[in-house]
Design a protein that fits this description.
6 domains, six-stranded parallel beta sheet, five-stranded antiparallel beta sheet
């Protein structure tokens, strides 16, 4: 912009702080002045539009080159990229047009104008463009998957004359489509610029099990470059947890009890509405946490508005019971009334709101009866919503002690149109739906308590947080705290322990969309959340068929179980493997294409012994037979795929004792016999019966262990043998506290894959 001004091409300047907010107020004021009495609904919505929401809308529109003004001298190819602003769910586009006219009249730019203005100036003035291009021979853009249309087109002009233009990024991590990012920009880069493509598949962050699962999840997307994610670090890392309220918080607390530093733990949300039950558990257990990107749940506007309505009903309840309100409490509920009187709009003037506040809760009058009296004689557009509120405040008062309070609250929300109000006044439909989700989250907190108890409960939590915040302010050092944020904010970050709550279809699912890439964005968000984990990834799944299809479609339980087995085998060491163990390891490594991991990243001595095991077992005369089972084992144990990733160093001469080899072959031959007599595979048939099947298709247990008592001995693939110290029922799940040599672990029997040992 400075270069353009020096050349006399523009007189636009960066505006003073908050000038955009001032122009928003002026644009809204102008429009309100033009409205007639018949436009009362438009006027009400205009008054309820906030600058924060409007500013969000501005950023989205300008990033997508949706502009209300196009310079007449803009070249045709550039003008063709500009489209009209989207109206969104409300009146934003028309305010945008007035706001932009005022901005141009004052000759000012805000933050979101900088890229658009620079692109327009370079498009209009070739001399300016040539001067900009002459500054750089090499241009690299990192995180290219995040660019929007305005950024992509500006960089197209800047890099047009350079010797090298490089885009660095991952189309699988395009998760900001709501603000203009799209996979097409990075996927189309090579064709647009005739560029060479380089793929860097190795992941140095996550354990092998996390990589295997994440790779399979993202591979389900179709709008992506074909590539594979490859692991470099040993270990499974994936832990699956049964669903229950606040489970993510309890997983975090368990990690803390096992010695984790709070700063090592993050809970990654899809939407901030999910934080309600998590914060509740953490506050009750007095676990310090930081919530990034949003206010604590009970301080959010959507929640405080509903709590204000409940407080009003509680005040009415006291008046009906003959209890007078103290001056302090009356002032508080009057403030509550003023904050919600037009949420949603009831076309009440400030004077009317003040009058109702003065009359209510005096001489035995409730707010409901005051509103009922006020509605009489008012114009229809005022009388109707006020009368509805009066009626439903009465119902809310009557049902204040009803347990559960969930349905009571949701009925009230529906009757007064609060959910529709939240969606219709948001800058985008997605923002509106997220705000409406706060209502559902608050209602769920009333599933086991009445609304009166809910208010008391949240007030106690609020006081506890205020006390802890005061202590933190007095402390000279920052106390370690676990982190809660959305997956959107976590991109590019990493933690030792990552917890993803609510891996359910309600939270993570593909959405029908005309744009295929937009329909697949939810899977990309889930993939980003999974790949933040350096050591442990904890997934809280759903009940029965409620687990997200992103996991179910890749048979996540099998992937997790097999990598747990592989981790256990590698920790034991290949030197101790039986023929069954060796075949199982070979099957898992081959099925998930981990040969490169073995050759490049596994400890050299472990690799030598492992490949020696494969070499020795394959050389056994029994496996040289011509039947199908033996031939499959020959392919399974062949080292050719390993040789493709580097020289094979193996010495099988030291391994000659395979006492269980005949049993392995018999089991595989029996499996082939069963497959020949029925279309369903052994693996899927056993899966249907609840049996556990290993990598070779062998049934290793008729069903998972579902019942244990204190003193039982069990075996876990990773932790070895252990003793049961405690058994307890948590909701519909049974959990056991088990002492292993590696330490004491709490495990859900449904997911732990334990083998019960007999004495």
């Amino acid at each position: 912009m400075d270069r353009a001004r020096q050349m006399g091409l523009t007189d636009l300047v960066i505006g003073e702080e908050h000038f955009s907010q001032r122009l928003f107020g002026e644009a809204r004021k102008q429009w309100l002045a033009d409205l007639t009495e018949d436009d009362r609904e438009v006027a009400a919505r205009l008054r309820q539009m906030t600058f924060k929401d409007f500013d969000t809308y501005l950023g989205i529109q300008k990033g997508n080159l949706r502009l209300p003004y196009v310079p007449q001298d803009l070249p045709a190819e550039a003008a063709a990229l500009i489209t009209e602003p989207q109206g969104g769910p409300d009146l934003y586009a028309q305010v945008y047009e007035r706001h932009d006219e005022l901005r141009r009249r004052e000759g000012k730019l805000d933050f979101d104008d900088l890229i658009v203005a620079a692109w327009m100036l370079m498009s209009r003035f070739p001399a300016l463009l040539q001067g900009i291009r002459a500054q750089w021979d090499y241009v690299s853009v990192d995180e290219f998957q995040d660019v929007n249309l305005a950024q992509s087109e500006m960089m197209d002009l800047v890099a047009g004359g350079c010797r090298s233009y490089m885009a660095i990024g991952d189309d699988d991590q395009t998760i900001y489509q709501w603000r203009g990012a799209h996979p097409r920009f990075i996927l189309g880069f090579a064709k647009r610029y005739g560029a060479r493509e380089y793929t860097l598949p190795a992941n140095f962050r996550c354990p092998l099990g996390v990589i295997a699962l994440a790779d399979r999840v993202i591979a389900q997307n179709r709008v992506r470059a074909p590539k594979r994610l490859r692991g470099t670090r040993e270990g499974n890392g994936v832990h699956v947890h049964a669903p229950r309220s606040g489970e993510a918080a309890r997983v975090a607390i368990q990690a803390l009890n096992e010695g984790r530093n709070p700063d090592d733990i993050v809970i990654l949300l899809r939407t901030y509405a999910q934080s309600a039950e998590i914060e509740q558990v953490l506050l009750e257990e007095r676990v310090p946490y930081r919530l990034i990107g949003a206010a604590p749940f009970y301080r959010r506007a959507e929640v405080t508005t509903l709590l204000a309505y409940i407080e009003l009903a509680l005040a009415d309840l006291d008046v009906l019971a003959g209890r007078s309100l103290t001056t302090q409490r009356r002032e508080r509920v009057q403030a509550h009334w003023k904050s919600v009187a037009n949420r949603p709009s009831r076309y009440l003037r400030v004077a009317d709101i003040e009058r109702i506040a003065r009359d209510a809760w005096r001489s035995g009058r409730t707010l409901a009866t005051t509103l009922e009296a006020f509605a009489e004689g008012q114009p229809g557009h005022v009388a109707k919503p006020v009368a509805v509120l009066a009626t439903w405040l009465g119902f809310l008062t009557e049902d204040m002690g009803t347990t559960p309070g969930r349905d009571v609250l949701l009925d009230f929300v529906g009757a007064i149109g609060y959910r529709d109000y939240l969606i219709s006044t948001a800058p985008t439909t997605e923002f509106g739906e997220e705000r409406a989700g706060m209502v559902d989250a608050l209602a769920e907190m009333a599933q086991t308590r009445s609304l009166g108890e809910l208010v008391t409960h949240l007030a106690q939590l609020h006081e506890q947080v205020r006390y802890e915040e005061t202590l933190r302010k007095r402390s000279a050092t920052e106390e370690p705290r676990l982190t809660i944020m959305t997956a959107f904010r976590a991109k590019g970050l990493e933690w030792p322990v990552v917890i993803v709550p609510d891996c359910t279809s309600a939270i993570y699912s593909s959405k029908p969309h005309a744009d295929a890439a937009a329909g697949e964005e939810e899977r990309r968000v889930f993939y980003v959340a999974m790949t933040r984990a350096r050591q442990e990834l904890h997934l809280v799944v759903g009940d029965d068929d409620d687990t997200t299809r992103f996991l179910e479609d890749v048979k996540y339980d099998r992937v997790v179980h097999q990598h747990d087995r592989l981790d256990g085998l590698l920790k034991r060491g290949p030197r101790s493997w039986s023929a069954g163990d060796t075949c199982e390891a070979a099957e898992i490594l081959g099925h998930y294409e981990h040969e490169g991991f073995v050759q490049r990243w596994l400890n050299p001595e472990v690799r030598r012994v492992l490949l020696g095991r494969f070499q020795s077992l394959k050389a056994q005369p029994a496996i040289q037979a011509s039947d199908l089972a033996a031939q499959e084992l020959q392919r399974l144990l062949d080292l050719q795929k390993y040789a493709a990733h580097g020289p094979v160093t193996a010495d099988g001469a030291e391994f000659s004792d395979w006492p269980d080899l005949d049993a392995v072959l018999r089991a595989r031959r029996a499996g082939h016999s069963r497959e020949g007599s029925q279309p369903e595979t052994t693996s899927s048939a056993a899966r249907t019966r609840g049996a556990q099947v290993d990598a070779l298709g062998r049934t290793v247990a008729s069903a998972p262990v579902t019942s244990l008592v204190v003193g039982d001995r069990v075996r876990h693939a990773r932790f070895g043998d252990g003793e049961v110290l405690q058994v307890k029922q948590t909701g519909t799940q049974t959990e056991a506290l088990i002492r292993f040599e590696a330490g004491t672990k709490r495990m859900s029997l449904e997911f732990a894959r334990l083998e019960k040992l007999t004495n």
